[in-house]
Amino acid sequence: MKARELRELSDDELRQKVAEWKRKLLNLRFQLASGQLQNTAEIKKTKKDIARALTILRERELKRREGSRA
Question: Rounded to two decimals, what is the model's pTM?
Answer without folding.
Answer: 0.91
